[in-house]
């Protein structure tokens, strides 16, 4: 078991209305028991998220938040670790492991998912998060499977188009922070430079906007044996000239004919952990690992060891994943003027979608998918 933190938007703080502004209460909670989005409310629904999230800390054995972590009446995973208050109710950990026993066990679960259309034109998968005490299950908040909606984006449930699943997905709660291990060479207008030698004001090459100055560069040292164990990418595995290591959720840019066919996009982001094949791309646990973060004026596509990756993404979930020192330094430097890099520069596909790409029918097709150098 390992300690895991999931950040959720509390359901009581989420505004749900019809498209003409009429409030619709309790839809998110009622969805636990059925397709409330379609059969209880005949109107399209508009959801507006709050600005802040609340942390839920729990034990996790496999790195995925699942629905019903039980074997019969016994709890097998996802037990609450720290007391938390959500929607005015306080939930406390319990040592119980049998649902009908005393004390009753307290677990965290992924209950349902629903696809919503963002006001930015992107589709987002909202997941209902519950806390169960014994047999009493309550939807306490929502998270997202895959891409997070940027601040200010409203979400619409569109009757006849949006899909609802009453069983929750296997949700990876690890916030996405693009991190490069020390030694990774970053492309600049003057050639490649190991990331640890870059400094504020240096220019780095970007795919979309040419040379851009570094506004902040920081680093975090973490336990490399945990879920943050680096992903080792051998030379040429993705078109990279040399081997490199990145954090599990570091996104790479994928493009090619199959990407357009499957996702209707010229190129998409996918996290490194979804490309693991245990041969040329694999987890590489170590005692400690130091990750470096590069902040530009927006979320940019940069080049590491010759392949297209990303600069620091400052969405709320990603910021929560930085260590305290790095996060505090950013706020001390920028305050309310922290650069708005909360919008991804390309669409993101989920881990399951990225994993499915490995099933490409031919080696040539697979190579086209995974080559992520200059487009």
CATH topology of the largest domain: Endonuclease - Pi-scei, Chain A, domain 1
Give the proportion of residues in helices. Answer: 10-25%
Task: Report the end-to-end length measured between terminal Cα atoms.
Answer: 42 Å
Class inferred from helices and paired strands = mainly beta
How many independent structural domains?
A: 2
| Number of separate helices | 7
What is the number of beta strands?
Answer: 27
Any idea what the shape is?
globular
The CATH homology group name of the largest domain: Hedgehog/Intein (Hint) domain
Rounded mean pLDDT score: 82
Radius of gyration based on Cα positions = 21 Å
- What is the CATH C level class of the largest domain, in words? Mainly Beta
Q: Indicate the low-confidence ranges by residue numbers.
A: 359-375
Organism: Celeribacter persicus
InterPro entries: Hedgehog/Intein_dom, Hint_dom_sf, Intein_N
Protein name: Hint domain-containing protein
Domain Hedgehog/Intein (Hint): 178-315
List keywords for this structure.
375 residues, mainly beta, Endonuclease - Pi-scei, Chain A, domain 1, 2 domains, 9-stranded antiparallel β-sheet, 3-stranded antiparallel β-sheet, 7 helices, 13% helix, globular, disordered C terminus, Hint domain-containing protein
């Amino acid at each position: 078991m390992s300690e895991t933190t999931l950040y959720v938007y509390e359901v009581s703080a989420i505004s749900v209305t019809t498209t003409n502004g009429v409030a619709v209460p309790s839809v998110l909670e009622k969805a636990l028991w059925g397709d409330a989005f379609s059969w209880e409310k005949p109107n399209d629904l508009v959801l507006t998220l709050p600005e802040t999230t609340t942390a839920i800390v729990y034990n996790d054995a496999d790195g995925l938040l699942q629905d019903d972590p039980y074997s019969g009446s016994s709890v097998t995973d996802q037990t609450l670790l720290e007391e938390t208050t959500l929607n005015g109710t306080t939930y406390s950990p319990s040592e119980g492991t049998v649902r009908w026993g005393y004390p009753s066990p307290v677990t965290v679960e992924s209950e349902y998912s629903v696809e919503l259309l963002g006001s930015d034109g992107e589709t987002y998968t909202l997941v209902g998060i519950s806390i169960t005490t014994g047999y009493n299950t309550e939807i306490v908040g929502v998270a997202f499977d895959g891409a997070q909606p940027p601040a200010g984006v409203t979400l619409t449930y569109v009757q006849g188009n949006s899909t609802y699943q009453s069983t929750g997905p296997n949700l990876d709660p690890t916030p996405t922070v693009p991190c490069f291990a020390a030694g990774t060479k970053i492309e600049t207008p003057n050639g490649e430079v190991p990331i640890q030698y870059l400094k504020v004001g240096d220019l780095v090459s970007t795919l979309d906007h040419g040379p851009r100055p570094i506004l902040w560069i920081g680093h975090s040292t973490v336990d490399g044996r945990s879920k943050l164990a680096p992903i080792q990418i051998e030379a040429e595995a993705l078109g990279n000239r040399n081997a490199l290591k990145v954090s599990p959720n570091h996104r790479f840019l994928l493009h090619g004919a199959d990407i357009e066919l499957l996702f209707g996009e010229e190129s998409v982001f996918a996290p490194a952990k979804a490309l693991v094949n245990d041969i040329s791309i694999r987890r590489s646990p170590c005692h400690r690992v130091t990750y470096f973060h590069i902040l530009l004026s927006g979320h940019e596509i940069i080049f590491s060891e010759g392949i297209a990756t990303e600069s620091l993404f400052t969405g709320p979930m990603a910021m929560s994943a930085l260590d305290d020192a790095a996060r505090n330094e950013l706020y001390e430097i920028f305050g309310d003027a922290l650069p708005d890099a909360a919008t991804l520069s390309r669409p993101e596909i989920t881990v399951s979608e990225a994993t499915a790409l490995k099933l490409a029918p031919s080696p040539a097709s697979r190579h086209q998918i995974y080559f992520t150098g200059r487009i």
